[in-house]
Amino acid sequence: MSAVMALPAWAAYLVVGGLVFGEAATFLGLVIPGETALLVGGAMAGTGRLSLSVLLVLAVAAAILGDSVGYEVGRRLGPRLQNSRAGRLVGAARWQRAELMMARRGGWAVLAGRWVGVLRALMPAIAGTTGLPYRRFLIFNAIGGTVWAVAVVVAAYLAGASWHRVQTYLGTGGLVVAGVFVAVVAAVVVFRRRSRRAQPADSGSRM
Fold first, then answer.
1. Using an 8 Å Cβ cutoff, are 112 and 182 in contact?
2. How does residue 130 score in pLDDT terms, banded at 50, 70 and 90?
3. Among 177, 185, 97, which residue's Cα sits nearest to residue 140?
4. Would you tell me how many other CB atoms lie within 10 Å of the CB of residue 136?
5. Are 180 and 187 in contact (CB under 8 A)?
6. How far, in Å, are 18, 59, 87, 195 from residue 125 at the CA level?
7. What is the pLDDT of residues 136-188, one digit of tens each?
């Protein structure tokens, strides 16, 4: 990825955007994680070679669109995807891990999986294969893609030449952040549902 830093700005934008997009859309993330591309782009923005605002917009758009394409691939190919050439490269153990997470967490798995390299590449296709409604998928995809892309780019932007250190922290630290985020949002949803159920009973008792 160091070769990207030698590219002119327009080419660097294309490479970073293409890698982030292709991570889930073409399973490219199994070879070159889009996270690494964002770290390099963020470091370049820190030196003034790239525009931080342009990079952020590009990163968020590429992350969301790439996962949407991955979802469509999974929806159209279904279980056949695992038997394809790309699917066999993934390995049965990785597919099973992603499927188990999707079965347990549903849309939340899409959000949490955004912070784990292998799951980030597989989860959209699994969501499409298992029939997760696209509208629900898109909500978690948009939230996860935005938070992840902005966090990674800004972290590398602030770290500058030390962006390699950020990469080592993201593996475990990012998963912890995602877990906390999912837990907080889930708690809010449960609290709102309970409040709505309690409202009719409260109004009836007042009468």
1. yes
2. confident
3. 185
4. 13
5. no
6. 18, 20, 11, 35
7. 999 999 999 999 999 999 988 988 766 666 666 665 445 455 555 555 555 55
